[in-house]
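dumping this here before i forget
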Amino acid sequence: MKILVAWVEAIGGHIGLRDWLLHHGYPELGVFTAALRNKQEARDWLMRNGHPHLMALIRGVEGDAQALQWLEKNGFGVLRKVAEAGDGDEDAMKWLIAQGHRELAMAAHRMNRVKTGIDEDHQDPHKYHLD
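structure:
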């Protein structure tokens, strides 16, 4: 459970916990935080190192229906719910909590905040770099 809480905090931007995950046996969870923020190298790392389920989770949070289907088909039904909740599905969030997946519900909430922040940045004309 402590690892999940550390992951939730790392998703939220806690660099110290992200680095701890990277160097203490959970590199996929540390790399996940960069992949969630659209870092292509991190996304590639997840795929190359046997974590396609984590990449599918991210794609599901981004609204990719095929990623959600892949998660379900490959036995990651709970991660599908995390992805749906991370994409703003309130029923999926309620399901996670009702099934006792409180830490995963917190992770989904943090993923949603990151995704929303990225979306807002893309829509903010003050953040465009015009060369």
